[in-house]
User: What shape does this take?
Amino acid sequence: MKNMSKRSLFVIAGCLLLVLGWWSCHHRTDTAQSSPSTGGGRRGGAGGPGGPVPVVAGKVEQKDVPIFLDGLGTVQAFNTVTVRPRVDGELTQVLFREGEDVKTGDLLAVVDPRPYQANCVGRSVFPLSAGCCSHNFSRFTPRR
Assistant: This one.
């Protein structure tokens, strides 16, 4: 008996909420239609909110239509290249800007040449001094 009374209370409460909801929606639409329109509302115009919207003809003009696309994301290039240096050193000049088109054979950067010049000079002087030493050594050898 207690279970039936709880169940019947829930059914009655549900029906009461349903009738109350229907009445509030029906009452709102009646008051909105009966009140005079002041031109405000969502659509405005002479018909009032929710009423017909007036149509006005305009003059035809030919113009460019701007197209703007706003969005978040990432962009990838069609072609990418990895530049690997053949030598190590300090860059003294970079002869291109990021995003600039370059062609095969274009000079992209200049590396400081001083370490390589010093290395070449050192290599060329060493055989000369070694040759002088061996020449001096051979000059003294026959006296023994």
Notes: Strands lie at 91-94, 109-111. The longest helix spans residues 2-34. The helical segments are 2-34, 114-140. Residues 37-45 have pLDDT under 50 and may be disordered.
